[in-house]
Predict the structure of Glycoside hydrolase family 13 protein.
Amino acid sequence: MHDVPLLGVGVNRHDTTPGASRKVGREVPGDGESHEGKKNRGAARRRGRHARRRTCRRAVLGWCPVTQASRDWWRDAVIYQVYIRSFADGNGDGEGDIAGLRERLPYVRDLGIDALWINPWYPSPLNDGGYDVADFRDIDPRFGDLVQAKSLLDEAHGLGLKVLLDIVPNHSSWDHRWFREALAAGPGSPERARYIFRDGRGPDGALPPNNWRSVFGGLAWERVTEPDGTPGQWYFHIFDVSQPDFDWENPEVRAEFLDILRFWFDLGVDGFRIDVAHGMVKNMAGPDLPYDESGLLDRPSIADHPFFDRDGVHDIYRGWREVADSYDPPRLYVAEAWVEPAERLARYLRDDELHSAFNFGYLKSAWTAADLRRSIDDSVSTLASVGAPATWVLENHDVERVVTRYGRDVTAAGTGHAGKAKGPVDVELGTRRARAAALLMLALPGGAYVYQGQELGLPEVLDLPEGSLQDPVWERSGHTERGRDGCRVPLPWSVSGSSYGFGSGGAWLPQPAGWGELSVEAEDGDPASMLSLYRDGLRLRRSIPSVEPLTWIDETADDVVAFQRGRGFACVVNLGATPSTLPAHREVILASGPLDADGRLPTDTAVWLAV
Ligand code: GLC
């Protein structure tokens, strides 16, 4: 690790003192400027290019509200995803919980991230890992309770961390009170009108209303038995049969979710990740779909899809934005929307809709310079057109761990969904690439996400015993796809001991032999570990001038990704087959692996440079 004076290494980006501003080497306030003005300029620096266009002049004039910086914290934030069931087990029942997370908050803070996003913790039968919610205003007892949740929020805030929750508006669990009432009330009732019930086709209604399929495999329709015991209507479920879809045409559903948002915002939650944000609005009169028999779980990519990315969904988000903006500071929304092309995604991020969205196009890019450059350019420019920052994602609880994904022959991973790819994996190669990918991601303008365990370099667990698989995809695909459990295996905290320090009562998914070698204890303090790379990268990232756009460095070879952020900082990644000469620089700040004897950048290696 080398210090780089120009970048002001060690200067906290959130530090608005005059000294800190000077070290960044840009936009140093003039001597006659007030402290307030300097603070305002700091705020402007933290916003993206688009925002700078709109607000810097105000800041210079000295009337930009000083709270603006804290309002825009998310524009270049790094958000750490906590899959709570697998993070840390505080009560020894084999499943992670709020108590475990509270104990480990200092670890998360010390990583150098800005916020947590916690996967669903609501009461749930966990048929789909908690994305089957039985009560949107409570916490499953296996994870804790509302009092503990409040303490967690307070403690995280005390450590300077924001907290986002996961909201699941497309569907509920079949254990939700509303769904039980719908089943009991029968056809035509207001209780059924909260979900999507239809009569079947054929003389006795025994055929499903149409051929639409569930994302998890099989039909997207399930027939119910009516209260009088006769075979009855069908209900629609994009996902598992235990996840009935709400009818968002129903004003009661809309009002209910506005109230749920307020419930959590009032408790102190800073925002929501919105599950299947491109679902909700449907055209139930749409035609049968042309499924490709070879790709059972792949949805047809057609224009005017009857249940994904329909224009009507934007009205919902305008209402949600009003709720978020009625709080001080305003609350944040992040969309999980598997929508392409980037122009369609940008529509979710218009001024009066959501703030940010996961960049799955980037996650799905092949590990080639051309693909990465194209994806970066597309993301930055398209999102800038609506004033939104780009985000960068390599992993989450649905996709194959990057160490494994990048260790495959073909790195263009299709949807990236865990449990789909087959064939050999070279974990050493994948790890080298994942290290380079981490530095690339953290150097890009905008926000970034880190999924728990990514910072340890955990691989996908590909050989979980079949009997332990819990993802509904395994059953619904007729045992042809193993699903996503392999990226959800409980974290190793210590080299040895019960469940490698996850908890005292074992782990709900079996951890593989050798898991302890990738534990926090094993990697802590080892300068060559993935954990050290992430900690260093996250710390040094704070001194990259966040307002500076990306400028490609053209002098490097085609299979090298190289760019500058402002005058002082450059990132170079070699994806070619031979070592590459570095562009002119003053110092190497951080490298994902050693340079060769001639100071050249080896294959699958990234560096940050002071230039
Ligand atoms: C999202 C979640 C995934 C879940 C699905 C259904 O894609 O990330 O885990 O299975 O929605 O809620």
Observations:
- Residues 43-169+248-280+295-321+330-541 form a domain with the TIM Barrel fold (CATH 3.20.20.80).
